[in-house]
Q: What sequence folds into this?
């Protein structure tokens, strides 16, 4: 079992953030919401580990 | 006086006057079953085959007309096979393996049930519920002809009960007027609205879903719809409903389910013209069909707190109700009967303590909770109840078209599989290192080819000691309960199914199998003391 990493882990944080905003550019609120939902699912599948996912769900709510 | 709540498909047990109606003091019966639906009749079969006298009381004279259940799972067929009536079901039923999922106008993916090789029965058959019931009643008639002590009394409506510690007094209404009988054991199989539950003031708790479905069974000769399960989320034929299911049944009949929302005018929706408008939107204007049966149902996931109340025991829809997604209603009721039959039989024969019946409660509540959880999840996916829930649902469907990873998340009904009684007090500790998970204590035995037939043909009805690549005694007895033993050589099954399903990484195995074909105990080699202790545990007897 691996633990959820809550330390900085992204190489080039500003670049990533820009990319994240870029996919939402010009999108309506509904389109953006749909994109975010798909993104959550894609990332969750990539992580796979149920314990990590649980910890991430909790971290997001807290 | 006798209002029929539904029309009959088959008049299977017309009212006949019984001698009990002329008795001066109420006649006492060992077992009375209230309700002659599929679960009540199956209960009668199970007990009658054991030679236990059983009287079934039903307020109608046969099998209801509405088709209701259409998907019958492998486990139900295996149970029916133990009762001797699976073959006609198999002959009549439609076997299907392929499912297609559509979102709007696109097919997002298809799945194959990929039935495992080496089983006598397919994963599922589709068949109208009245056939399922009628085939069991035919078996009752065949057993009666051989002297089995089963009676089904039509137009016998239970009006009130007086529940005592060790028996129940039943007041029954017939076309000839009222009469009274007594039952040592009363089995409540009187359906989801169980009058018995109300008479006893017992709760039925859970969740009601705010949606309704319109079912239309239609007859059409049409080759453009193959024998597959088609499910639409947000179908393109918008006027049809928010989701739609199309599924084939025998006799050129198709089941169509439309999700039509919560606030509907039932009378209006059920008018043939309005049903046809939805069907035409779906099938196209030029398709000819005949409307066989239609109904609107809302659904709920509910269960009783306890299924056993002293000498009154509930089974089937009376004990628990699930939404139809996943076909878990009748299929789980059959597992109730499978579980209850041998236990009640041994208790009545004085070979097991009454405590054995508490394990029915424990095991089948576990089963009901599993079914309720599964069908609640399906329902939440099919009919999302919040904006966010819909957002994720649509995201899953969207992704599943392109990416394989999202397909397992699509939930248009998880099809019924039998329950594993993990944690049951009847289980002994797993004593087979390397043994497959699927045959752990509490699990139903998976089928496998054996000799010229199948393994399950040789299991069930009594306790069985199965040796694999090792010998076991052919006979053993403990406290009046007999155990039949036999050995198989895994090498005889060249396809390797017995080895794969029962040995895993072990070289030899011994299984103690309950009369309902669930594993009680397993170990590497026969050890008499362990087997005797395991048997006593499986009978809820004291084990030291
Ligand atoms: C639309 C729909 C689709 C379904 N699809 C499936 C499916 O695909 N697969 C599946 O496994 N299940 C399915 N089910 C569920 C299935 O139909 C039920 O689980 C099943 O009928 C339950 O059987 P039962 O014997 O417990 O109760 P019931 O079939 O309801 O029988 C109860 C009997 O008790 C009798 N009775 C009631 N009151 C009295 C009284 N006072 N005295 C005497 N008799 C009485 C009734 O007349 C009736 O005959 C579906 C249900 C619906 C509504």
A:
């Amino acid at each position: 079992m691996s633990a959820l990493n809550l330390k900085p882990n992204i190489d080039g944080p500003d670049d990533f953030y820009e990319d994240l905003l870029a996919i939402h550019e010009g999108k309506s609120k509904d389109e953006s919401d749909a994109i975010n939902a798909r993104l959550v699912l894609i990332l969750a599948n990539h992580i796979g580990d149920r314990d990590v996912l649980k910890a991430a769900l909790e971290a997001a709510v807290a | 006086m006798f209002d029929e709540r539904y029309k009959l498909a088959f008049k299977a047990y017309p009212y006949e006057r019984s001698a009990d109606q002329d008795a001066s003091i109420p006649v006492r019966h060992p077992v009375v079953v209230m309700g002659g639906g599929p679960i009540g009749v199956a209960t009668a079969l199970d007990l009658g085959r054991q030679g236990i006298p059983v009287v079934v009381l039903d307020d109608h004279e046969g099998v209801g007309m509405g088709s209701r259940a259409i998907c019958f799972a492998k486990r139900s067929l295996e149970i029916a096979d133990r009762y001797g009536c699976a073959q006609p079901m198999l002959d009549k039923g439609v076997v299907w393996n392929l499912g297609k999922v559509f979102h709007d106008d696109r097919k997002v993916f298809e799945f194959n049930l990929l039935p495992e090789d080496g089983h006598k029965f397919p994963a599922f058959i589709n068949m109208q519920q009245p056939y399922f019931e009628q085939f069991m009643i035919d078996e009752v008639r065949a057993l009666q002809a051989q002297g089995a002590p089963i009676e089904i009394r039509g137009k016998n409506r239970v009006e009130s009960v007086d529940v005592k510690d060790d028996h129940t007094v039943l007041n029954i209404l017939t076309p000839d007027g009222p009469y009274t009988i007594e039952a040592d054991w009363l089995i409540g199989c009187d359906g989801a609205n169980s009058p018995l539950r109300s008479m006893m003031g017992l709760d039925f708790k859970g969740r009601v879903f705010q949606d309704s479905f319109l079912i239309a069974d239609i007859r059409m000769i049409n080759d453009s719809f193959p024998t597959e399960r088609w499910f639409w989320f947000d179908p393109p034929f918008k006027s049809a409903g928010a989701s739609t299911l199309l599924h084939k049944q025998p006799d050129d009949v198709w089941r169509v389910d439309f999700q039509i929302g919560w606030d509907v005018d039932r009378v209006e929706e059920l008018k043939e013209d309005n049903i046809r408008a939805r069907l035409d939107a779906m099938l196209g204007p030029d398709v000819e069909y005949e409307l066989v049966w239609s109904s609107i149902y809302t659904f709920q996931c509910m269960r009783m707190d306890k299924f056993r109340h002293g000498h009154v025991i509930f089974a089937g829809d009376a004990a628990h109700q699930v939404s139809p997604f996943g076909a878990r209603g009748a299929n789980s009721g059959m597992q109730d009967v499978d579980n209850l039959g041998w236990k009640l039989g041994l208790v009545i024969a004085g070979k097991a303590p009454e405590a054995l019946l508490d394990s029915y409660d424990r095991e089948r509540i576990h089963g009901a909770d599993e079914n309720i959880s599964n069908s609640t999840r399906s329902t939440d996916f099919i009919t999302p109840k919040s904006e966010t829930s819909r957002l994720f649902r649509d995201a899953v469907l969207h992704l599943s078209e392109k990416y394989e990873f999202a397909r397992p998340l699509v939930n248009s009904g998880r099809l019924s599989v039998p329950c594993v009684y993990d944690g049951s007090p009847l289980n002994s500790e797993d004593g087979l290192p390397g043994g497959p998970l699927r045959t752990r204590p509490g699990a139903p035995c998976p089928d496998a080819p054996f000799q010229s037939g199948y393994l399950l043909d040789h299991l069930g009805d009594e306790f069985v000691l199965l040796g694999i690549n090792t010998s076991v005694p052919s006979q053993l007895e403990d406290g009046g309960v007999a155990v039949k033993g036999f050995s198989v050589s895994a090498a005889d099954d060249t396809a390797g199914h017995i080895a794969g399903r029962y040995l895993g990484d072990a070289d030899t195995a011994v299984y103690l199998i309950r009369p309902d074909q669930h594993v009680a105990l397993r170990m590497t080699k026969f050890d008499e003391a362990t087997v005797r202790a395991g048997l006593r545990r499986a009978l809820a007897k004291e084990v030291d």
Remarks:
- The pocket of flavin-adenine dinucleotide is lined by residues B 34-40, 57-60, 68-71, 129, 157-158, 189-191, 195, 215, 297, 316-318, 324, 327, 329-331, 333 (CB under 6 Å).
